Amino acid sequence: MSMKINRERLLDTFTKLVSIDSPSYGEREMCAELKARLLALGLSVEEDDTAKVSGSNCGNLIAKLPGTLDIPPVMYSCHMDTVAPAFGKRAIIHEDGLITSAGDTILGADDLAGVSGILEALQVIIEEDIPHGPIEIVFTTGEEVYGKGVNALDMSKIKAKDAYVFDLTGQTGHAARKAPTIISIRIEVKGKAAHAGFAPEQGIHAIRIASGAIAKLQFGHVDEETTANIGTIAGGAATNIVPESCVVTGEVRGYNHEKALAQTEHIIETFRREAKAAGTEIIAESEVCIKAYEIDLNSRAVQRFCKACEEMGVEPDLCETFGGSDLNVFANRGMDGLVVASAMEQCHSCKEYTTVDELCRMTQMVLTLMTMDE
Description:
By secondary structure, the protein is of the alpha+beta class. The chain contains 10 helices and 17 strands.
């Protein structure tokens, strides 16, 4: 069976979706568009009630297509939100097949290329009556803010044990089976204000304390599987006042969850000791945004992906990523899966792009996975 995707329809879908503003926490219009398209294809569709927990103005979308083959269900997932600058996006298709934004916003291929590919693959399956196993679709909110939507998802609504999350840069055949824990850190150093000219000795210099702690810490790669960073620092009120507060924020990432937790505590404790030596204290907060996972090479999800690559004539390229995705949550809730390349490059910047050919190849990968007979 040919299973030919409709190139022009795919591009029209992508262009339409890109034109919809869907910043994190503001995915309502995108949700409505996708719900209408999925219902028109004949899928059962539910918008869950996670908005009250996730902070978005809509819920996650869960759609299902019963299988015509007696094989286990498989889930395909993308996120609906995009990073800033996200308002007024439009896709410009150049003569050479390059697709960019106008240059003043991101394009939104992250993750609307994957969404478009899933919609087109479903339409081909339904139009050509292609045999397939049970298909579950999950379009989430708030992925770009550490998976707010997927963290609130009721997993009892999902029957599949295998997941393909289309949300990765790289060429078709590229997929990630391992990702890190990411922990956010916020530390406020409590100082004491005093006039910096008349009575500096009466103050406690919060910025100096924070700087002293930072100077004692290692950043970047602290070992072969852990990184640490302080990304922002803010404090003080005026040039003639000893600063009474300094706030720093940062993160720790690591493939080993326990080591990432230990590195986080080391950073906080270093600030605490520095503050104590100066006669003051800190207020520290940390949050595990996502937790590390690693998928077994022998898992059904990986083996199916490798077979799909073989059918398409591409080499499977299984890798590790140091970024997070919704799969971090799915994997830590008992699912196997991969984060699959989804025709997006230079994401999170106004230089983001895709190409017509890669968009088509990625969609062919979705279609191949959806129509496998095992």
